[in-house]
Specification:
The structure holds 2 protein chains of 2 kinds. By secondary structure, chain A is mainly beta. Chain A contains 3 helices and 12 strands. Classes of the chains: A mainly beta, B alpha+beta. The A-B interface holds A 94-102, 105, 113, 150-155, 157, 164-169, 175, 177-179, 223-227, 237-243, 246-247, 249 and B 97-101, 103-108, 114, 190, 192-194, 204-211, 273, 275-278, 304-306, 324, 341, 344-345, 347-352.
């Protein structure tokens, strides 16, 4: 029996390798609780059943508890659920020591709260990566500014009434520079990218009307403090204008 | 019996002959062996041949070590933990996210270049070449209570510090941040003094007065070729430089310059704009080739408002490009390359053509 099992495994692994070579990337050897093996691609889960497609196009339907626990766990981790985001923004003046704030100097703290809700019932034990970008617009020029960016590993809540939430803040300051030029930036908008553990993007969301879907990846290449243009290309830093009136300072 | 005797008699002759032959052979072989044993030369202990050991060019290890992990620093941190610092927000752990959901945090565990700032970075980025900066606030005593010293008293403390041979014990009664910063450049563009202390963890808040503070940087400099140099620049309000135990530049703003340390007025003092003020000129000093010397810099803010510390360096005999004012565009003082991110932070408030951020002139030891 054991020899038979080994031989079967070798054949299956060989077949699996061969299939991989012809790009059946999702093909996998699965094991049932009775010890038997089969090779197929996971298709979907529905009402407590798993559906698989074999290389021959045959559909295999199994109840959830037909698979061994490690394979069930694999399915729970590898196939992220559908999600929905609810984004709320709160802007408040930054609390400062007013004794040392000059006139014409304003600073706001923008806090973005993101609620991530799982939209289907299938359990998901894996983590999602939620990247939040807070974008500012330079007041003296047409530059955009990456005022805040952060990645959050998120484990989804199964409680629909209490979705998983994250919050992220950045400060936006406008002030009169020593050359009398008004500088700094206003809050322009946000962008959010949600991806699974394999880096597959599940969802992108923004309120920046100029940000195209294919430009989200370009935001990921920037860093906090970088200036960039509408094509999400990094630009040089906007410099202050030359001032001749500095003797008065 | 006679035959037996005869046999025995004849046998004894043969035996005698045999004994003689065998005895001779035995003596011959035995003698040879004994001779060999006896004549075996004593072992001579000859000194081993000297092995040539090629000198290797040892490079400074480029291992990033968190200096805060060293026992010395750790002791200091634990000491400062006993200091009550009411209402002061201590440095945020960069690795901790700001998620509000249960069990969520950012995953940037290792501090990265984003932690590098214009005052320095929280970790040593160039061991051996970097200056270590310690932040003091004279607005607070060491227990974190407001000290209520005046700006004139602050200037007197700085003066006492200089008089005492730059001994930081003079600052002992006042608040010292547990967060040290490491830097390979000393050049702070114009920033609001409100934000200066935040680089050392003192976040702006209504309860923190960003006045009468200073940063004491200590490090070593070296030039392989040696040379004659002098510092230029301007500090708003305090900028003092000591090389090899000698004050070589008092670049403090006019009001404070004469109060904090001696200086000799130079003909080019206050001649050119630099940042929000006019640049000052220091004393020439010489560096011997490849000889490291100590260097210390003190920068400070007195009343609040704008702060800057422009420290540039001029090498004797070098022709420098001049800007629209006719001022030499001098290199920023550095002991290592300045990261692009820090350069960008500097450039944001730096008027183009006032200093040279790209020069190859460096005072690194390694």
């Amino acid at each position: 029996m054991n020899r038979f099992f080994k031989a079967k495994m070798i054949i299956l692994i060989f077949l699996f390798s061969a299939m991989s070579a012809v790009s059946f990337a999702q093909m996998r050897v699965w094991r049932k609780v009775d010890g038997s093996l089969f090779m197929a691609e996971f298709s979907r889960a529905n009402f407590g059943s798993y559906y698989f497609e074999t290389a021959d196009g045959e559909t295999i339907k199994l109840s959830e508890d037909s698979l061994i626990e490690s394979d069930r766990e694999h399915l729970r981790n590898m196939f992220p659920p559908k999600i929905n985001l609810r984004v709320t923004k709160k802007t408040a003046p930054t609390v400062r020591n007013t004794k040392f704030v000059w006139s014409g100097d304003y600073m706001d703290t923008v806090t973005l709260s993101v609620a991530i809700k799982k939209m289907n019932k299938e359990p998901y034990d894996g983590f999602l990566n939620v990247e939040v970008f807070l974008v500012g617009a330079e007041v003296a020029t047409s530059h955009f500014h990456m005022s805040g960016m952060k990645s959050f590993p998120v484990k989804l809540s199964d409680d629909k009434k209490a979705p998983t939430e994250i919050a992220f803040s950045a400060n936006f300051r406008r002030y009169e520079d020593y050359n009398d030029e008004v500088r700094g930036r206003n809050y322009e908008g946000y962008a959010i990218i949600v991806s699974d553990t394999n880096g597959k993007v599940l969802l992108q969301e923004t309120d920046l009307d100029w940000l195209e879907d294919d430009q989200f990846a370009d935001l990921q290449k920037l860093y906090e403090g970088a200036f960039f243009n509408e094509r999400c290309m990094k630009t040089s830093v906007p410099r202050p204008k030359y001032a001749d009136n500095r003797k008065d300072l | 019996m006679a035959e037996t005797k005869g046999l025995l008699s004849g046998g004894s002759s043969a035996m005698a002959l045999s004994i003689l032959i065998h005895g001779g052979l035995f003596l011959l072989i035995g003698g040879t062996i004994i001779f060999k044993v006896v004549t075996k030369p004593d072992a001579k202990f000859v000194p081993a041949q000297q092995i040539e050991r090629p000198k290797m060019d040892l490079k400074k290890p480029r291992v990033k070590v968190k200096k805060a992990d060293s026992p010395k620093i750790a002791r200091r941190i634990s000491a400062t933990q006993s200091i009550a610092v009411p209402n002061l927000v201590l440095p945020e752990m960069a690795s901790i996210g700001q998620g509000v959901g249960a069990n969520f945090s950012g995953y940037e565990i290792v501090p990265d270049v984003s932690e590098m700032g214009i005052f320095g970075s929280k970790i040593s980025i160039d061991i051996g070449n970097d200056f270590v900066g310690t932040f003091y606030s004279m607005a607070y005593d060491r227990a974190g209570e407001k000290s209520k010293i005046s700006t004139q008293e602050y200037a007197k403390i700085i003066h006492d510090f200089v008089d005492a041979g730059w001994n930081p014990r003079v600052f002992a009664p006042f608040f010292r941040s547990p967060q040290k910063l490491y830097t390979t450049h000393i050049f702070v563009p114009v920033v609001s003094s409100e934000f200066g202390p935040s680089y050392f963890g003192m976040e702006p808040s209504p309860d923190f007065d960003p006045i009468t503070w200073c940063v004491h940087y200590k490090g070593k400099i070296m030039r392989p070729e040696g040379g004659r140099f002098r510092f230029n620049g301007i500090g708003d309000d305090i900028l003092l430089v000591r090389v090899d135990g000698k004050l070589v530049f008092n670049g403090s703003g006019d009001t404070w310059r004469k109060l904090v340390a001696p200086h000799t007025r130079h003909k080019d003092d206050n001649r050119y704009f630099m940042g929000l003020s006019e640049s000052l000129v220091g004393e020439w000093f010489e560096l011997e080739p490849s000889k490291p010397v100590d260097m210390e810099v003190l920068i400070g803010e007195v009343p609040g408002g704008h702060f800057c510390a422009y420290l540039v360096v001029e090498e004797d005999g070098v022709d420098y490009e001049k800007n629209r004012q006719g001022m030499k565009v001098l290199p920023v003082f550095k002991t290592g390359n300045i990261s692009e991110r820090v350069k960008e932070q500097i450039q944001y408030t730096l008027i183009q053509g006032e200093v040279d951020l790209e020069s190859s002139l460096m005072f690194n030891l390694y």
